[in-house]
Amino acid sequence: MVYVSSTHYEDAYRRIADTAATTAGASVLLFVSMDADALCALRILTSLFKRDSIAHKIVPVSNYAEITSMNQTLAQNQQIKSIVFLNCGAQTDVQDFVTLRDDLVVMVIDSHRPFNLYNVFWHEQVQCLDDGDVEKNMGELREAFEDIEFGDSSSGEDSDESEDEGSDQDNESRIGHKRGSSEMLGDLAKNDRQRRKRKTDLDPESFMRMQQQKAERRDARAAHQQMIQAYYAQGSYYGQSCAISTLMLAEQLGHPPSLDTVWWAVVGATSQHVLQHIDSDGYAEVVRRMRDLVRRVCPTASTTRLNIDGNARSSNTSESALGSSATVTSSSQALLDSQLGLPGQPDDPPQRENIDPFNPYLEMIPEDEDEGYLRARAGAASNGEAGLLTSSKNIEQSVAISESTELKFLLLRHWSLTNAMQYSPYVATRLGTWSSKGRSRLDLLVAKLGLSRAEAQAPFLHLDPELKLQLYRKMHAIGADYNMADSLYAGFVRDYGWRKSRVSASDMVLAILALLQKDAWAGEYESIHISASGFFAAYDSLSQFDILRAGLHGAQHLQRLVVGQGISMLERQAVKTLRVFRLAILGELESSSHVFGSPFALRQLALFLMQTLRERSKSAHARLPFIIAGPIAQETSEVDKLMVLGITPMDYPLVRPHMDAPFNRSTYAGESRNHFGIVFEQVASEVGAEAKQGFFDSSVMEIRRSD
């Protein structure tokens, strides 16, 4: 077994720790994908390394070519004993871009699917952390893979059981050898000699039996080959968040979850929801699994829920732990109803004692324990003489995580309501806010929400708390009239103390993505000054609020660019609707085209265009996949290249082989699959185009504009 089951993650970590104990310097090399989930997982994993005194080196990478370029250095550096891939490495055979020395241990923590079967079923040195799908759904696929790779290729020449047993022992001895190694080639040659030696004169009955066995063997191998081909042909999708996997690893090692590690796991998992990598039921499962951990690390933090009357309620009920494998038995709407406090929900638990009803973070101190009050009563002439304030209240600074009902208005807590709605793809695509009619509908919606124009344009942070509660209640009531019935969703927020606004997990994801692309836009935004590179600025934002605040400003700037670019393309009718997909190409003369040379910015633009056209298209074309291409900023002008990205809607109907096979099931992505990686490779091969498909997301590629 070369994959690591979800209940034994600590085994893979202990192998790394054991090899690190024999090395004086940095023995662990971390290849980290440049995305929010990988950064959150990196934070959790490095906290474990620091606690166990394991020296390590972090290398941010954006494609497999960058990993391959490190291979020669890696092979020469005998000090490196372990390699960890964070959100990369699962879909491609690790041996294709890393030279596996005998003393090298590789751990792959990746949410990209499907797994490359050589990574999970071939070599003991490569350890892929399984989220449960391999162990639960890929048993038949493993048998097929081992039959093709380790089975008797002579299709049944062994005619008796003893020979079959001997062949199986030879096959087991091959497991663990590097493909193409001298040991494996020697085993194959030895088996061939033994097979030829066993050939003797056979009687007609034995000969017919042997031929029948050969035919059955050929049919079985053909069926296994078709199963493996169907597995790879199903398209790409996403599994369990890397951040959740590393948090599970920490728990299995006996390290209790802290406020920071739980928050990083929440942010990493939320990034999959923001980028639409998982479906609504997958996100509901994530929220369920994180609820208990949030309540464990913040037992005194109340959960803000809203009922249909607009009253705030608190909840501290406990649900499944992170490591549990609870089955999704209800839809994401049922999960939201539980946070909204709709009828049918359990009664609230008793409130904490000594809590000021007007400020839950203002804890009341009993009179007999208030030293300043007792001194004053004892005859102190003044507070100065008493030495303490006579106030009976001790204000505590809140730094907790809490559950929250969120609106699908981007960066609402850090913007005005008008801007949050105008630049949110969810609202803009449904109301068409770029047109005069759409702006009129937006003004009407704000009026129905009970806010004046001045209040809607003021910073949301300064809005009257009663109006904020009213906003959520009324949006839940009238959202369906504006095609926004699902405008509320369950999420998490974190307090950072006084004079710092609360930050939701989705807002933090946008801030991290903006910081990762900082080099492309920071020059246009003079108010943002960050000395670190994009990757390490995003890394620091997970623990430094000042950098996070800069990332939030950058996210606002990027969102303006995304919506502005999308509106410009729609007005110019730059999106072409073809028979089976839609196509959009950004021109070189676009004012912000350089920003969309990043896969994340390009994906956000594509999602905006796809959702807009979906809301305004005929039913036959509403769910068409989307292809978008944008120019790549080149240091030299030798080659003009485009970055091409393909997106498939989560509810796009797909028909693929072995639909009922267990390996086609996914806990987080459902039946949604993206086939563009396979299609791009086939088309590039047919037309002879020079295409580069070395990105961790297989649906992204680079191609020359002339092709």
Overall structural class, as computed from helix and strand content, comes to alpha/beta
**Percent helix among the residues?**
40-55%
Reported for the largest beta sheet, the result is: 6 strands, parallel
Strand element count: 21
List segments where confidence is low: pLDDT < 50 over at least 5 consecutive residues.
154-168, 307-331, 339-364, 388-394
How much strand content do the residues show? 5-15%
Please tag this protein with its features:
six-stranded parallel sheet; about 45% helix; about 700 residues; alpha/beta; six-stranded mixed sheet; 21 strands; about 10% strand
Walk me through the topology.
Elements: E1 3-4, H1 9-20, E2 28-33, H2 36-51, E3 56-61, H3 64-76, E4 82-86, E5 105-109, E6 112-113, H4 117-121, E7 126-129, H5 133-137, H6 139-150, H7 161-174, H8 182-198, H9 204-233, E8 237-238, H10 242-252, H11 259-274, H12 280-297, E9 305-306, E10 312-313, H13 332-340, E11 362-364, H14 371-377, H15 383-386, E12 393-395, E13 401-407, H16 417-422, H17 425-431, H18 436-448, H19 453-457, H20 465-478, E14 488-494, E15 503-504, H21 505-516, H22 518-521, H23 534-541, H24 545-571, E16 575-577, E17 582-585, H25 599-615, E18 626-631, E19 641-647, H26 676-687, E20 691-692, E21 700-704
Parallel strand pairs: 1-7, 2-3, 2-4, 4-5, 5-7, 17-18
Antiparallel strand pairs: 6-8, 9-10, 11-12, 13-14, 14-15, 16-17, 18-19, 19-21, 20-21
